[in-house]
Amino acid sequence: MNWWQGLPYKISPYLFEINGFQVRYYSLMYIAAFASVYWLVAYRIRTEAWPIHKERVYDFFVWAAVGVILGGRFGYVVFYDFSYYLQHPLEILLPFNLSNGIKFTGLSGMSFHGGLLGVGVVFFIYCRKHQMNIWDFSDLIIPAVPLGYTFGRLGNFMNAELFGRATTLPWGMFFPTDATHTLRHPSQLYEAFFEGIFLFILLWSVKCRPWTKHRICALYLVGYGAVRFLIEFVRQPDPHLNTLWQIFTMGQILCAAMVIFGLGLLVFQFKRPAGSP
To answer: How many C-beta atoms surround the C-beta of residue 233 within 10 A?
Structure first.
């Protein structure tokens, strides 16, 4: 066995533990994700002379965090385990399993696409509340967002969760949370690179081009949806979920919807004069 194949076994999921209290790298990675996006947006405001104060962005990020949490949670309930939560509605927001007594579980299950919808709602409400052009604001925020995904996916890797399907490729890895002890794709690292670094470089490099004005949101939806759709072929789906035509996962169906919506939005924006409100 090559040394890197057992790497997940050598990574502790938490920074330290004191009397049962754990500080997990997973949580720290999400803090790093928000911090990196905020820093990049503040950098743009400072260097590109955006007519907005960075405190307004900080205020938006507080709203966005709520949108991610609520949207991610309700998205998981609706998209991934609706029948269960229909019978156990209290467990949607309560961090307890009530099926057999009371057992603390935390809020198990978050959906990226639900979080995206939650942030979309927050974008709309926040821009209406502060009389801001939603397309201008999305042009400012969105190019920085994919870099945050890199940290989030690294958090998944350190937590040994969301690993890939079985593989015989030499860069496959064994994960301590896999009861079958099967060599698997490190799909979290694929996602960290392609959903994060690759998409960040792509959007950041075109963010100031005249033809991308008010079209960054559409490019993001198409780019992320396409990349995630392909990676889902090597990502292990949740065991309780079925596939469409025994091929496509729920994640791929939602990503396909992202791409279709993004292409439609791109066509709509190209039919409008660049820079129109």
So the answer is: 14
